[in-house]
Design goal:
Length: about 600
RNA sequence: GCCCUCCUAGUUCAACGGAUAGAACAAAAGUUUCCUAAACUUUAGAUCCAAGUUCGAUUCUUGGGGGGGGUACCA
C-alpha cells in the first residue's frame, strides 16, 4: 500500500545487481518506513535473497551506498536487519506533490471507445416485500464496486434481476384480493412496496391460522401445510399466471407497479442508480436450450423420471438438478440462461460481477463451473461478490420472524439520529430549514454507508445505528467533518497558491503530510479494482485523521511564514479533493459547509 | 454427516508473508490567546488452541475448538 517507488529506483538497483551478481530483477518491494526508524521509505531486501545468496545486511548496505551516490533524491540510508531505510530529499517530495497536484481526477482513468464493458448486478429484490438492511449492504457494495470499476476505465452497466414472479408474489396477491380489495398506495398513504409487503405478512399469518385449525382437526403438519385453502389458492394463482390468465396478469402488473414505485423512492434516497433491469418473469424460461445442448454433449444427464442433472463430483461438488421432472426450470437453469443472454445482447461485455450474499456461495460456484464445462470462454471473468450477513445488537435478522430492519425505516432513523446529534451541538443557526433537512440526510446516510463499507465484505457485520453516527472515530461523519473544515480553511485563505520553493524548511508534521501526499499514489488504491470498498474506506479515514493531526500541530506552532502558509493551503486543497473525490466513490455526498 | 466461511484489546474494526500487531469507541489523566473542543496529547489493554512450511506466520498448510452459512426437483 505505498507509492510505486520502483519507477524511481528500479533502474539504479537493477543495474547494480546486474553488474555485481548477474541477476536481472525488475521489481522491488518498498514500504513506508515505520515512524520509529530513521528514513522515509524502506526497501525489503529479504525477497532478493532468493536470487542472491549473500548476507542481507551486506546487500542492503551495498544498495544503499549505490543509491546514495547515484540518485539525487536519496540523501541518506541506514540498515536494520534486512530493511534498507532510505531518506529522501524534500525536493523529491515537492516535485512529486506538484506533479500530482496538477492532475485532475487523479487515479481515474478516462473512458474511451476501447474501454472494456463489465456488468455489475446488485440489489435484486423480490417484489413481495420492501427492501431491508441486508439489501442496503448489497446496494451500497454493488454500487461502490461499480464506481471503482468506472474509475479503472471500465464501462459499467449497473443492473439487477428482479424476482417478480413466483409463489411469493402470488401470496401477496391472494391476500390483497381477499382482505383488502380497495387499498392502494394512494388511498392508504403507504409506499407501494410497503403495501404489498403488508399483504404478504397478512397471508403468512392467516395461512398459519389455517394450518393450526387443520392440525386441530387431526391432520399432520405436512398435510395441513399442503391442504390449507390459502396455499391452494396461491398455487392456483401461480398456475393461472403461467397460463397467462388475463385477470391474474393484470393484478400482478398492478401490484408490481406499486412495488417498483416504492423501490424507486428507496433507491433515490439511498443514492443508487441502475442502467438496466432484468425481470425473472422474462428470464425464467431461458436456459432450457442450454440444457438440451448439454445433454447432447453428455455434460448433463437425464434420470428415469425425466429430471436433468449435472454430476460435479469430479470437481469435489455434488450433483445438481437443472430441470425438474415435469420439465420446468429451476433457479440454476434461469441463471445459466440469463448469463448467456447478457453476453449475446452485449457483444462487448467482458464480465459480470454478481453482488449476492454468501448464503449463495455454493450456487455461484456451481453456476460458474457449469458454464465452464459448457465451454464459454467468458466464464473466467464472472465474479461472485459475496458478502456476509448483517446482524443487529439486538439479535439476528430473520425475515420469517419479522425481525428484519426495513430499509426506509432505517434510513429515516439515521436521518433523525443525525438531526438529534446536530441539534445537540448547535451551531446551525445560519442554515435555512431546507438546508438543514439536506444536511441531516447527508450525514445520516453517509454514516450508514460508511459503517457498512468500512468492513471487509466477506465478514458479517454487527450494525449498531447509534455507534455508526458518532461524530468521532472511524465514522462517515468524521470524514465529512474533516472535509468541511478543509473547505472552510480554503475559503478563508486569500493567499494564492504559488510555485513552491525547494528550499522550504518543513516542520516534522508537515513533512509527514507531504509524505502522505507524496505517497499519494496510495490513492491509486481507490482506483484499483482488486481493492475492496473496505480498504478504500479505511484509507480515507486515515487520511482524514492525518489531516486533523496536521492541522492541530500547525495551529499550536502558530506558523506564519508566508511560503509555508501557501504550501499548507495547497496541501489542504489536495486533501480536500482526495476526500471529496473518494467520497464520491463511496457514494457519499459531502456538504460544503456545516 | 459433508462442504464453505469467520475467529485479533472490554467492544467494533485494521494489518501485499515483514520490523515492537495498528485505529476507534468505552476507561484513566491532561491540553482552550489558535483557519470551530465535532479537536489534540498521554496511560492501560489483543492474534481461539496445537503442530508444520521459512530468515520471518494474525496471514500459508494440517488437525482440534467456537460462531455463521449451505447441503440434490426453494429462490
Amino acid at each position: 500500500m505505498s507509492m510505486n517507488y520502483n519507477i524511481h529506483f528500479n533502474n539504479h538497483i537493477n543495474g547494480f545487481l546486474k553488474d555485481k551478481f548477474q541477476v536481472d530483477i525488475d521489481t522491488f518491494e518498498f514500504q513506508n518506513t515505520r515512524k520509529e526508524f530513521l528514513g522515509d521509505i524502506t526497501l525489503l531486501v529479504f525477497p532478493l535473497l532468493k536470487y542472491i545468496k549473500i548476507n542481507p545486511e551486506k546487500l542492503a548496505e551495498d544498495i544503499g551506498e549505490i543509491l546514495l551516490n547515484s540518485h539525487k533524491a536519496v540523501t541518506g540510508y541506514n540498515v536494520v536487519k534486512g530493511f534498507l531505510n532510505l531518506s529522501l530529499s524534500d525536493t523529491f517530495y515537492l516535485e512529486q506533490f506538484q506533479s500530482i497536484y496538477k492532475l485532475k481526477n487523479y487515479g481515474h482513468k478516462i473512458l474511451t471507445e476501447e474501454s472494456p464493458t463489465m456488468m455489475v448486478e446488485f440489489s435484486s429484490p423480490n417484489t413481495n416485500k420492501p427492501l431491508h438492511l441486508g439489501h442496503i449492504r448489497n446496494n451500497v457494495l454493488g454500487y461502490s464496486v461499480a464506481r471503482i470499476l468506472e474509475a479503472n476505465g471500465i464501462h459499467v452497466i449497473k443492473t439487477q434481476i428482479i424476482n417478480d414472479r413466483g409463489i411469493h408474489i402470488c401470496k401477496s396477491m391472494v391476500a390483497w384480493k381477499k382482505y383488502g380489495k380497495n387499498e392502494t398506495p394512494e388511498n392508504s398513504n403507504l409506499k407501494g412496496d410497503q403495501l404489498v409487503g403488508k399483504y404478504y405478512i397478512i397471508f403468512e399469518s392467516e395461512y398459519k391460522k389455517e394450518i393450526q385449525s387443520l392440525i386441530d382437526d387431526g391432520l399432520t403438519q405436512e398435510e395441513a401445510k399442503r391442504s390449507a385453502p390459502l396455499m391452494i389458492e396461491a398455487q392456483n394463482m401461480l398456475r393461472l399466471w403461467e397460463d397467462n390468465d388475463h385477470e391474474i396478469r393484470s393484478l400482478w402488473e398492478k401490484m408490481n407497479k406499486w412495488v417498483y414505485s416504492g423501490f424507486n423512492t428507496t433507491y433515490k434516497n439511498l443514492g443508487v442508480t441502475f442502467d438496466s433491469y432484468y425481470y425473472e418473469s422474462r428470464t425464467y424460461l431461458l436456459g432450457k436450450k442450454i440444457i438440451k445442448k448439454g445433454i447432447e454433449n453428455n455434460i448433463f444427464y437425464k434420470k428415469k423420471d425425466g429430471s436433468v442433472w449435472v454430476d460435479l463430483s469430479d470437481d469435489g461438488l455434488d450433483q445438481k438438478i437443472l430441470l425438474r421432472s415435469d420439465g420446468t426450470s429451476v433457479y440454476m437453469t434461469q441463471d445459466l440462461g440469463t448469463a448467456l443472454k447478457r453476453f449475446e445482447e452485449e457483444p462487448s461485455l467482458k464480465g459480470i460481477v454478481y453482488t449476492v450474499g454468501n448464503e449463495q456461495d455454493y450456487h455461484f460456484k456451481v453456476l460458474f463451473l457449469i458454464l465452464k464445462k459448457l465451454g464459454f470462454d467468458w466464464t473466467k471473468s464472472l465474479y461472485h461478490l459475496s458478502y456476509g450477513m448483517v446482524d443487529l445488537p439486538s439479535g439476528k435478522m430473520k425475515s420469517r420472524e419479522g425481525t428484519v430492519v426495513d430499509a426506509d425505516d432505517l434510513m429515516n432513523d439515521m436521518i433523525n439520529q443525525a438531526k438529534h446529534v446536530c441539534q445537540e451541538y448547535g451551531k446551525l443557526d445560519s442554515l435555512s430549514s431546507e438546508e438543514l433537512e439536506n444536511l441531516y440526510q447527508i450525514i445520516g446516510l453517509g454514516a450508514l454507508k460508511y459503517f457498512i463499507l468500512k468492513i471487509d465484505p466477506k465478514k458479517n457485520i454487527l450494525f449498531d445505528p447509534i455507534a455508526s453516527i458518532d461524530f468521532n472515530g472511524n465514522t462517515g461523519p468524521f470524514i465529512q467533518y474533516t472535509h468541511a473544515r478543509i473547505k472552510t480553511l480554503i475559503k478563508s485563505s486569500s493567499a494564492p497558491i504559488r510555485e513552491f520553493k525547494t528550499t522550504l524548511i518543513l516542520e516534522p508534521k508537515e513533512r509527514e503530510l507531504i509524505k502522505l501526499l507524496g505517497s499519494y499514489p496510495e490513492f491509486v488504491i481507490l482506483a484499483r479494482e482488486e481493492y475492496s470498498p473496505a480498504i478504500i474506506a479505511n484509507y480515507l479515514y486515515d487520511l482524514a485523521k492525518s489531516y486533523n493531526a496536521f492541522y492541530q500541530n500547525i495551529s499550536v506552532l502558530g506558523v506564519e511564514d508566508i511560503e509555508l502558509r501557501n504550501f499548507r493551503v495547497a496541501l489542504s486543497q489536495k486533501v480536500a479533493e482526495v476526500i471529496s473525490s473518494s467520497s464520491g466513490l463511496l457514494g457519499f455526498k459531502v456538504p460544503d459547509r456545516m
